[in-house]
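Bug report

Summary: structure tokens for Multidrug transporter AcrB differ between web form and batch submission.
Environment: batch mode, default settings.
Steps: 1) Submit the sequence below via batch. 2) Compare with the web form result.

Sequence submitted:
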Amino acid sequence: MFNKIILWSLTHKFAVLAVAGLVTAGGLWSVATMKVDILPDINKPTVTVFAESPSMAAEDVERLILNPMEAALAGAPGIERIRGNASYAQATIVIEFAWGSDILRDRQIVQERLSQAILPAGVKPVLGPSTSLLGEIMWVGMASHQSGISPMELRTLADWTVRPALLKVPGVASVLVMGGDVREWQINLNAERMRRYDIMIDDVRESVEYALTNKSGGLITEETREYAIRIMVAPSQVSELQEIGIGRNAVDGRPVRLGDIASTVEGPSPIRGSGAIDGEPGVILRIIRQPDAETLSVTDDINEAFTSLSASLPAGVVLHPDLFRQESFIRAGLGNVERALLDGTILVVVVLIVFLMSARTTAITLTAIPLSILTTAIVFKLFGFSVNVMTLGGIAVAVGELVDDAIVGVENVFRRLRNWMLGGKLENREDVVLSASLEVRNSIVYATALVAVVFLPIFFLPGIEGRLLVALGAAYLVSLIASMAVSLTVTPVLSALLLNDKALSGHEKETTVVQKIKERITPLIYWCIGNVKTMGVATLVLTVLTVGLYVFAGKQGIPPFNEGSMVTMVFLPPGTALNATNEYMVKLERALLDVDGVRQVSNIAGRAAADPHGGSANSSEMQIAIKSGYEGERERIFRDIQAVLDRFGGADFSLGQPITHRVEMLLSGVRAPIAVKVFGDDPVEMEKAAKQVVAELKKQEGVTNARIQQNTVVPEFRIYVDRNRLAEYGISSGVVANDLEMGLMGDTLGQVRLGGASVNVVARYDAESKGTMSSLRDLPLPFMGADSLGSIGDVRLEGGRNSQDHEGGKRVLVVSANYQGKDVVGAVGAAKAGVESQKLPVGVTLSFEGDYKSQKESSRRLALIFGIGVAMIFGILYHAFRSSAIALLVMTNIPTVAIGGMIGIWLTGGSVNLAHLVGFISLAGIVSRNGILLIGRCLALVRKERAPFTPETVVRATLDRVVPVLMTSLVTALALVPLLISGSEPGKEMLHPLAVVIFGGLVSSTVISLFLTPALFYRFGRKAVMEAADSSGF
């Protein structure tokens, strides 16, 4: 088939060039219209459920809301993981479905299941908007420190002007607002006066809620005109509420107005979340994109929206548009990889010029690069893939290999045409081109097939690692297959058209560089053939030693990103009030601003409404923006920030990066690289086990910020009502509880519309009525016989759980930690062994997850993939040579990649991560190409030219192929140099370790293959050559 493709191409030259032109045009269009992002889609379809009960304690939320919802969702089709949290007043459930599932169908399944849950009256589960975990693309701050704009006015501006404008931007799914004061009309009820006038909260509700909105009286028609009737009762000022009639005094029958029992003011509502910028209070808007939206285009549209808004904002309002921008990381990452791709291409051009010393052969060879890349773009466009650092990285890693097939073809055609010209031009030029192209056809096809089969099993790698590597592998493979197609079609056509007598003139001899190389290596090859045992033993010893380096090297999971910003989670002791948290964070922010390289600091404390990742009042998330030009100092800045955190104390911390934290969430559901989950039924026993885990983690070098999730007991006031005493008065305990709940927590009676803003009208007891424990006991009750709360019950200060997490319907307590070292797997493994040597509390089980689990599982799968790949390589080689012995001889190159690969790893840090392992896997296919070229040429000499199987024939075959072997290896290796330099730059995090292994492995395997392969082939291949000479494809 491939012979026919080459023959057809040479007989239809202009048709081939026309198709190449169409591919170029289609590829350019695809590149211009493809979606751009930082990473491939690694988000599982996720549905978030919120259920709020404004006054319910965490223990009751777990029992009455979270458990019933989890039970209803159990067994629903397609669900892979359910995580739940019960905290004060809110239950949150995060449901993950399998990759590729339809999110609309998933939401429908969740909605149907939740409708079966039996929940307390008034509790209605709500599905959060369709977003992704990596969808939080921006933090934008608003401040007014030097103006007369109050925090309430700033928050109103954010809620009712800025937020609606942002939600209109295509691709924006949600905007969470934190900070400032939420405007509220407050009816502050005095319990003593309510009792005096015999007024209950229900009376207030019934009277006020109907007086907040205007009513309609229909229409009146008089003669030929029609008039609408409007009943105007809605107040325009909060003071107007005081005139609303509530009832009559039960003693003297005098009318009672709201102002008689309450004060009415406009003030800030009690908040559960706040925001700050550079140590000063402010409002922060967290912008979340829709799952399928493109970050860069959405960000551009948001910027335009802010440009329009800025003209209408009041004087004194300052916007901080870059507290956190995912766009910055994307543009930096893509820019770095694009430059590496361009620089690698330039190095490829240099190598081709040095070896070929011909402008035309260089140009013919180079056509493989743009055509292969543009073909890849077309394929990606058809399948809906995005341009990201992984797909670009796959092409950047392959850019040297893209010309390998063309090099083999052009070099052989050029050599044969040179011999044809020196031999008197006895054949037709096109026949020589056809014969030369067919001669290396099998080498090209089989070499590409070897690389492809090694990579194919990676497409079945599950998890986030699989999603990342599939994108890289797809770009790598598609571009390589495209380059093979170019070498079989365009390359022969251009060779026939461009390599005429004029092009060959002056190239009757090989270039000086090639002559020198052949002169130097010829005696070395002869020496190796005569000393094959020495050469083999030396290679074996080096290989075993470097394999030993792998055994003792540190192990890590996915390489850390360099995002240009950092994030710190701060956890003060449970029960800390929001104002105390804010005071602590102001001091911490100001201290962090003194760290060299920190540009800006912002934080949010508590949580916003409908925030799946929000915390309690004692917790805060801080974004730390790094100055431009400090990207290479990430580790130093990490250490300096950690030093500040250690100096502050009084809180638990978690230090990381925004996108990295979210990837960690995808791995384990925990924002930390080290996560140990403690499962059980008894929270006390679970906490004992968690303390054992923390103690072991703190013993390990590099482990920092080890902490136990703050699911603990906090002080709370508990009101115990005396049912018997209430029964004597004919009062239901439920009625009393309901009245207390509304009065103490607050009851939203309705809303008033003021301009474009809606303002809640809330009634609650005033501070005089409920301010302290003693005033609670003295709280008057509007019930006959019940003089005060203390007369019908008791108020006690006791303890209750602040929060409880679930996973898979079971209680879980999470131990998390950061890691700043080179062997996270070893550190966690040692801690795991230490914990397992102790006795755990009864009923408690542990699950070690995070980077540890990810690396262990992925390395096992990659080992299996490598084994499958090697077996497939053997199958292809056997099919090519029809000889097991020759197939095994070619494969002797594979172990030698460990020598250069592991040396490269040790020179760049000594820790092995998943990208390094993928590099070793890809090398198995790449280095087999050299053996095919060398042994294939020897078989051709014996079979077609009837040369004897002697050392001279083996050396001749090696010299005939030394140029393509060295050129293909050099261009592949040198094209990786830009990825080796400044490997910590954004975008190169996954590519640098991959390049380190491929570069080092290519160097060692190429050098060894040029000498060891001919020696082993002569020593063990004689019988195989005689058997395979007539049956192989060479």
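Above is the batch result. After comparison, the two runs are identical; trailing whitespace caused the diff. The mean pLDDT is 86. The first strand starts at residue 46 and ends at 52.
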